[in-house]
User: Fold this.
Amino acid sequence: MNEGAAHATGHVLVFLHADTFLPPDALSLIQASLENQGYVGGAFSLGIRSQNRLLTIIAWGSTLRSRLTRAPYGDQVIFLRKSYFDALGGYQDIPLMEDVELMRRIRKKRGKIIILPTRVLNSDRRWKQEGLLYTTVRDLLIIFLYWCGISAEKLAKFYPWQNE
Assistant:
């Protein structure tokens, strides 16, 4: 992500996960939200592309959490003013939780983040492959442990793709 940001020539950076779908008007929504100079960036509300009611509740809970904390996760498509991102020093080079760590630094500097009401849609692939309960509990536990001070390098061992 830092490499892409370094080569970007625009004034706004949009960090989009490969399995996340933007709404058709995403770029105009980002532009309109950043017309307010008080915001350094933002993210979208979370949606999960699934008919499973539990995933709908998880998405709703994630959106509520990010609205209350103003600390969205990467699957909500984080966008930031490039000048602000550069001044922060970009993402830390850690195997996971880089989005959480970035938001922690933004909050520390009192940067304002907007959470747009429009949803992005994430694939439900991970929950289908790993199991809904296991994936949800593991992710919540990892986030909790990270906030308790456990390093991202240690926590990465709980993700299968980190051990390949």
About this structure: The chain has one domain: 2-123. The helical segments are 2-7, 26-33, 53-69, 82-88, 98-108, 125-130, 132-147, 152-155. The longest helix spans residues 53-69. Strands lie at 12-15, 20-21, 39-49, 78-81, 112-123.
